[in-house]
Amino acid sequence: MSTSPFRLLIPAALTLALVGCAADTPEEPAPPFASETEAFAAAEATYRAYVDALNQVDLSDPETFEAVYAWTTGDTLAEAKRSLTQMHADDWEVRGRSIPTTIVRSDHPDVAAASQALAVCLDVSSVELENAEGESMVALDRMDVQQMLVTLERDDSAPIGLKVASVRGRDGSPECD
User: What is the residue range of the signal peptide feature (predicted)?
Assistant: First the structure.
């Protein structure tokens, strides 16, 4: 029985056509934000949501930690899990609210960048932290308003497309009152 040359060419042609389609260059993903203004607004909204989640933490109820975890990533997520779990285990109590008083861009935002940075002033004057014996765990020299640099990273699973990746103290502009 002879095989028609066309019978062999058709599967070969289909294979080449499919391989050719798979080899096409994938399209570049669209930037997550349409403008610098939109990028800053997303970073600010993410940071405010993170602070709101922290303000809702009840150290006696680990379910309240989940909102904090949802807004964080990387080392910040790991540290939040470690510290909140330890404070819960040690039967600590937190009261009061942190209030962002200033939030400005720390760098020139790039709408396609994987991260955004904010310079923040955070009023923590009403926040109290006590151990199981009722002793304050707040440092005596704590400043009422903290200067911080907040870095946020792209995360498509986040409601606003960003999560808090790092929060650290900073010096410089803007000055916090």
Answer: 1-22
